Amino acid sequence: MSAEDDEIDKSSAPLIEHLIELRTRLIWSIGGFFGAFLVCFFFAKQLFNLLVIPFKWATQWAGLDPQKVELIYTAPQEFFFTQIKLAMFGGLVIAFPLIASQIYKFVAPGLYKNERSAFLPFLVASPILFLMGGALVYFFFTPMVMWFFLAMQQTGGEGEVQISLLPKVSEYLSLIMTLIFSFGLVFQLPVVTTLMARVGLVTSQGLAEKRKWAIVIAFVVAAVLTPPDPVSQIGLALPTILLYEISIWTARMIERKREQERLAGETQSEDDNPAEQTHAASTSLEGTGSADKAG
To answer: For residue 247, how many other CB atoms are within 10 A of its CB?
Structure first.
């Protein structure tokens, strides 16, 4: 029995112990989410005002007064449920590191040591990439999208009526949450493809050959996930294509590292068996000498 098999056997446990462990991890995850939800709900108005800042930037870009930004709600309960939705979204984002760590702690005992060391960096990279996508939405794409919509306003005058943008609080929150979720999900592409390359499901050559299809799929996914405006759709498709190219590069690096490890293993194996090499060489020499005598 190999050392890896021994490692798995040591981590094996009866079903009841796995269920108890799962219950513990679920309690920690749900408790962390609920605690973060309560904190976010307590500061829901402040968080919503923070999310309105990109709208104010857009009004400046459109040449309007950012101090006159106005959002409305048309149902008595609308803003209350908007705050609940915002608290759930914020609580999930804040509690994600805890939830991910609990998932890792539950799964880790069933993994080999090298699999645990390979999986852990992706556990750290995933929330960082999600935050990068969310930051890109907050600081650039939300102001761009809102500027695009603000440009459709009519100030009124001869031959036209005044048409002003007065977004509802629920619709504005849904817009910015959709953008953050879409970009955060797309930014996980290098993580997913790198994991698939590690287990041999994809190769850098295969990804490169499917580049044309990836570009088409990127624009289709952007059209589905984002609002129906060209700014957000193109804004999501272009980073997706760039991340796909990064995925090809990371897959190629993994393949090179795997090849180097294979060559190093072969070299080590040859160094560990010098007696077999000497015996094989002497056998070859004896065979050559016998052939010479027979000739």
So the answer is: 22
